[in-house]
Design goal:
Blueprint: E1 2-7, H1 11-23, E2 29-32, E3 49-50, H2 61-80, E4 84-85, E5 89-93, H3 99-111, E6 116-120, H4 121-127, E7 135-139, E8 143-145, H5 147-160, E9 164-166, E10 171-177, E11 180-185, E12 188-197, H6 203-209, E13 217-228, E14 239-242, E15 254-257, E16 263-266, E17 270-271, H7 285-292, H8 295-303, H9 305-316, H10 318-326, E18 337-349, E19 360-364, E20 367-372, H11 381-391
Parallel strand pairs: 1-2, 1-12, 2-9, 5-14, 12-20
Antiparallel strand pairs: 3-8, 4-8, 5-7, 6-7, 10-11, 11-12, 13-16, 13-17, 13-18, 14-15, 15-16, 19-20
Helix pairs in contact: 1-5, 1-11, 2-11, 9-10
Residues 7-13, 32-35, 39-43, 45-49, 51, 170-171, 198-202, 206, 223, 267, 343-345, 373-379 line the site of flavin-adenine dinucleotide.
Length: 404
């Protein structure tokens, strides 16, 4: 019998387990993960950026947790010897119509308490010699890290505090037995006083298994990447982003130097026909039908038809993908790029066709459900974990350590 069972061994489930084991050192905690290793889905297939928090609406959870989370992530990496680099990034306007949006982003960065600098085209070239643009801004606090390494350390810390970690354990059913909840899995039954749902791409389904309304449906958006050939890595020194469309939750294809020295270009954002569909041909009838029969999806599609079509074209045509990248670095050529991994984002969509903009954590009876944790949730993971622990009602039978 457990005090807390966490469903999902991505960065949010593991950060929550870590925060929980520090807050309640005597609690019996278990993390249940359906895959055979940690961080196999969103967390293990992302861009590896420690975001600064420039994009997010001031006062939102994203803005707060990202700003605080980027600091706590860097401190965590320093403390535990995980490779990271605070290399900074540039966001550049390449067309006149983007200049006002760039100015707005600059102001937003200041409102969010960040150190942001305006750059002329020449100043951008001093940082990124191969970029051609009209103007840019620099955020110096952006960094890079391998989030899988971060997760392995979170898992070590849970284990060293006495928590249990179960791989190959898929939660299939949740029922009640008095004050306890019973989690039936393919690998045994687990009784627990409290459930924390951090199931990422499946978080809405797990919430429903626990009789909780997730308030939105998860719609999977695949992000495909190319990698620059090693002999072309010199084209990118740090991280180079376009000015994003403020009505769209994705940042536009960009160049990212990874912590292993490789340079990735992407990700785009196309509807995936399978929640864990990493290839263009992946298809799952249930996943597909759920999206197609959801009124919110059609309202979203009507609103963003142009962007959606552009993203599809960019997915199927390398020339179109390269064309977007050439707006940032004109000398990059199709022959410089090789396809690499893809990731699938779990984005919550409401019935009215609006994407859930902020992180969304829903309370149930003796349960908490993380129903929307897209980017920058990896950056913010330590803060999200702590916030989830704060939301758990006091547990009189457990001794709590107040300051963690
Ligand atoms: C392409 C891409 C690029 C991104 N880039 C960045 C970035 O640079 N910086 C950043 O901060 N964020 C980035 N993000 C966002 C970030 O990766 C996610 O917000 C974060 O990883 C979410 O973590 P999670 O633990 O909620 O989900 P996940 O990592 O998906 O973990 C959920 C886990 O739950 C498990 N699970 C699901 N159902 C069950 C079940 N029934 N039983 C047991 N286990 C179950 C899954 O197997 C999975 O391991 C990016 C995301 C993507 C997809």
């Amino acid at each position: 019998m457990y005090d807390f069972a966490i469903i999902g061994g991505g960065i949010i489930g593991l950060s929550t387990g870590m925060a929980m084991s520090l807050r309640y050192p005597n609690a019996r905690i278990v993390v249940l993960e359906k895959e055979s290793s940690w961080a196999n889905h969103q967390t293990g297939n992302n861009s590896g950026v420690i975001h600064s928090g420039i994009y997010y609406k001031p006062g939102s959870f994203k803005a707060k947790f990202c700003r605080e989370g980027s600091r706590s992530m860097v401190e965590f990496c320093q403390k535990h010897g995980i490779d990271y680099e605070v290399c900074g990034k540039v966001i550049v306007a390449t067309e006149n119509k983007e200049l006002l949006l760039l100015e707005n982003l600059y102001k937003r960065g200041l409102e969010n308490g960040l150190s942001v600098t305006k750059l002329s085209a020449k100043e951008v070239e001093e940082i990124e010699p191969h970029v051609r643009c009209l103007a840019g801004i620099q955020v110096t606090t952006t960094g890079i890290v391998d989030y899988k390494q971060v997760c392995l350390k979170y898992a070590d810390l849970i284990r060293s505090q006495g928590g249990e970690l179960r791989l190959n354990t898929k939660v299939e059913k949740i029922s009640k037995a008095g004050a306890l909840q019973v989690l039936e899995t393919n690998n045994g039954t687990f009784e627990t006083r409290f459930v924390i749902n951090c199931a990422g791409l499946h978080s809405d389904r797990i919430a429903k298994l626990g009789q909780v309304n997730p308030q939105a449906k998860i719609v999977p958006f695949r992000g495909e990447y190319y990698e620059l050939k090693p002999e072309k890595r010199y084209l990118v020194k740090t991280l180079i982003y376009p000015v994003p469309n403020p009505d769209f939750p994705f940042l536009g294809v960009h160049f990212t130097r990874m912590i292993d020295g490789s340079v990735h270009a992407g990700p785009n954002a196309v509807l995936s026909l399978k929640r864990e569909g990493y290839k263009k041909t992946d298809f799952d009838l249930r996943d597909f039908m759920e999206v197609m029969t959801y009124p919110g999806f059609w309202k979203l599609a009507a609103k963003h038809a142009d962007e959606g079509i552009q993203e599809m074209i960019r997915s199927f045509s390398k020339a179109a993908f390269v064309h977007s990248l050439q707006k940032l670095i004109p000398e990059v050529q199709a022959s410089d790029l090789i396809p690499t991994h893809a990731g699938v984002r779990a984005q919550a969509l409401m019935n009215d066709g609006n994407l859930v903009d902020d992180f969304l954590i829903v309370q149930g009876g003796n349960s908490v459900h993380v129903c929307n944790a897209p980017s920058p949730a990896a950056t913010s993971s330590i803060e999200i974990g702590k916030a989830i622990v704060e939301q758990i009602p006091s547990q009189p039978h457990l001794q709590a350590v107040v300051s963690v």
